[in-house]
Amino acid sequence: MLRLDVNLFDYTILAIYFILVVGIGVMARRAIATSEDFLLSGRSLPAWVTGLAFISANLGAIEILGMAANGAQYGMATLHFYWIGAVPAMVFLGIVMMPFYYGSRVRTVPEFLLRRFNRPTHLFNALSFAAAAVLTAGVNLYALALVINALIGWPIWVSIMLSALFVLAYITLGGLSGAIYNEVLQFFVIVAGLIPLVVIGLHNVGGYGGLKDKVGQTELGPEAFSTWGGTNVGNWTNPLGDWIGIVMGLGFVLSFGYWTTNFAEVQRALSAKDLSAAQRTPLIGAFPKIFIPALTILPGLIALVLIPNLGQEGEFTYNDAIPLLMNRFLPNGALGIALAGLLAAFMAGMAANVSSFNTVFTYDIWQTYVVKGRRDSYYLQVGRIVTVLGILVGIGTAFIASGYSNIMNYIQLLFSYFNAPLFATFIIAMFWKRTTPWAGFWGLVAGTLGAGVMHFAGYNFAYFYPGGVYDPTHSTINAQMLNFYGAITAFVADAAVTVAVTLVTRPKPVAELAGLVWGVHDPSAPNPESVPKPVWWASPKLLGFTALGIVVVLSIIFA
Predict the structure, then answer these.
(1) Tell me, what's the pLDDT at 39?
(2) What does the alpha-carbon distance between residue 71 and residue 307 come to, in Å, rounded to a whole number?
(3) DSSP label of 79
(4) Predicted confidence (pLDDT) per residue in 129-167, tens digit
(5) Side-chain half-sphere of 444: how many Cα atoms within 13 Å?
(6) Is 272 helix (H, G, I), strand (E, B) or coil?
(7) Phi, psi at 272, each rounded to 5°
(8) What is the separation of C-alpha 378 from the centre of its chain, rounded to a whole number of angstroms?
(9) How far is CA 64 from CA 216, 314, 318, 319, 512, in A?
């Protein structure tokens, strides 16, 4: 069993890091006077802070361990999760979606649905998002528990409780501001912990050229450095399946559904001080997202060539790639920093989901349907209590995540159920003002059911098995590919039902759609011309198209 050779120096660094985490929460508490301060940071944070928090909130357990494991197992095909499955959607969120969210002054994504559709649509989405948030939080807790157990030897239940306690402390104390400022700190700690692994690892394998040569001699072969090879429809060999699943399932439905409608991410942008800062939040986050593969996928490939029998039965698993490199290359002190970075990644993901859960539960469920019309101080207290409940439920859902051998597959499955239908509803309603209130509700229901049907029926389709050979045990099924097609099915089902119901039900008057539909201006909203314009090099459109240009160039190089 893997154990890191940590000493008192490393433990001291970890202790200092945890003291900083709680200290930031204590300092952030001083600025909390209202529920909006606690749940949305008073909408006062600068773009660079919210931008780094935006990407750090996503840089959790799945990103660090999961993508490194995928890199070791699948090679450069994992890049699709970044350059197809993230950056384009982040740019779309910043340029197109944020003016709707921020300009309407909504506090949550479900609240936007309430104003655009009706109460049943709003409640359905609020409940489904709350469930998704605590399920995802459980994934981060479980992953953290596994790593601490493997590296330090603490029992899994102790690891879960301790990590949950620290996340609870700084969110309960500092609210969203405490979470966001900690996420900025965590971003730099994570990067500081991973860069030495890549630099030292590449040096040991003879640079990038040496890495390609050595990986070519493994079971992955030279194809490991091709992202689009083997994606032919009907005869796929790529580990992520055919190009339809990659482009439409991952690149369009799952990616846009996650980045544009997942409140755990959108909440960071809504906390920005003005519309310009809100738009720049995901765009600033897009630039580190482009290059994060160098800190996740490359270590996986380096571990593949340096660690004998990695991923083989009875040996270290692919999930151990980064911990193994840490143990091999980092001296004490640097090891403590890297371990702090690893723990930071898990806590950032956990905090993002818990802080978004408490906001949605407080505003969209409790205040709207349970206890109405109370003073703001009451809802501030509810937000704190719900944070504790969210942590407790997250502890429980951690054991659900433990039933999945690949937590990346589990996460994509959750997204196909919760994010894919929501994106279909959003995109249609934003650009088609005829879309009716009940079309939103029944579209979400149909999309969720569609994801479920595809998930369970797909196990009986030979196409999702390598070589088209059906496996009755289902052990060889390409679960990622099935999730991609499940997302496509959810989107199509939602869109079809949304259009059908719209054609037979009554739409809202155009006057009630002001600021909620493309082309319908809200006369009471602030004049966009009055928003302070950033300097030319910080223009949202320039930032967005520059990020897309970099992605196109890199995609051609690594095709």
Answers:
(1) 45
(2) 14
(3) G
(4) 888 888 887 877 777 776 677 666 777 777 777 767 766
(5) 27
(6) strand
(7) -70, 160
(8) 31
(9) 24, 23, 12, 9, 44
pLDDT digits (tens, 9 = 90+) for 40-59: 444 556 666 777 777 766 67
Distance CA 538, CA 541 (A): 9
Taking the C-alpha atoms of residue 500 and residue 278, their distance in angstroms, rounded to an integer, is 35
**For residue 472, what is the DSSP state?**
T
Mean pLDDT of the chain: 81
pLDDT value at residue 100? 74
Average pLDDT over residues 450-459: 92
For tokens 């002001």, name the residue: 514
Cβ proximity of 516 and 112 under 8 Å: yes
Give, in degrees to the nearest 5, the angle at Cα 85 between 80 and 86. Answer: 120
Which of the residue ranges 258-267, 283-292, 493-502 has the most confident prediction, judged by mean pLDDT?
Answer: 493-502
Residue 124's CB is within 10 A of a number of other CB atoms, namely 21
Residue 525 DSSP SS3: coil
The more confident residue out of 33 and 404 is 404
Q: Burial-class residue 96 by CB neighbours within 10 Å (0-12, 13-18, 19+).
A: middle
Amino acid at 338: A
pLDDT for residue 532: 65
Q: Is 235 helix (H, G, I), strand (E, B) or coil?
A: coil
Helix (H) or strand (E) holding 14: helix 8-29
Q: What is the pLDDT of residue 490?
A: 95
The DSSP bridge partners found for residue 272 are 45
Residues with Cβ within 8 Å of 468's Cβ and at least 6 positions away in sequence, in order, are 462
Percent of all residues in the chain with a pLDDT value above 90, rounded to a whole number: 25
Q: Where are the beta strands (DSSP E) in 303-436?
A: none
Condensed to tens digits (0 to 9), the pLDDT of residues 286-299 reads 898 999 999 889 99
> 542 with 536: CB under 8 angstroms?
yes
Whole-angstrom distance, CA of residue 131 vs CA of residue 400? 13
Identity of the residue numbered 203: H
pTM given for the model: 0.82
Q: Which residue type is seen at 178?
A: G
Q: Tokens in use for 444?
A: 């979400």
Cα(259)–Cα(544) distance, rounded to whole angstroms? 14
Tokens of 419: 């994010």
Number of other CB atoms surrounding residue 471 within 10 Å: 13
Report how far apart, in Å, the C-alpha atoms of 29 and of each of 49, 171, 392, 556 are.
17, 9, 22, 47
- If you search the block for the tokens 């780094």, which residue do you land on? 52
> What SS3 state is found at 184?
helix
What is the rounded distance in angstroms from the CA atom of residue 428 to the CA atom of residue 410?
Answer: 28
Judge contact between 533 and 489, C-beta under 8 A.
Answer: no
Alpha-helical segments (H) within 250-375: 255-261, 263-270, 275-291, 293-306, 321-329, 334-360
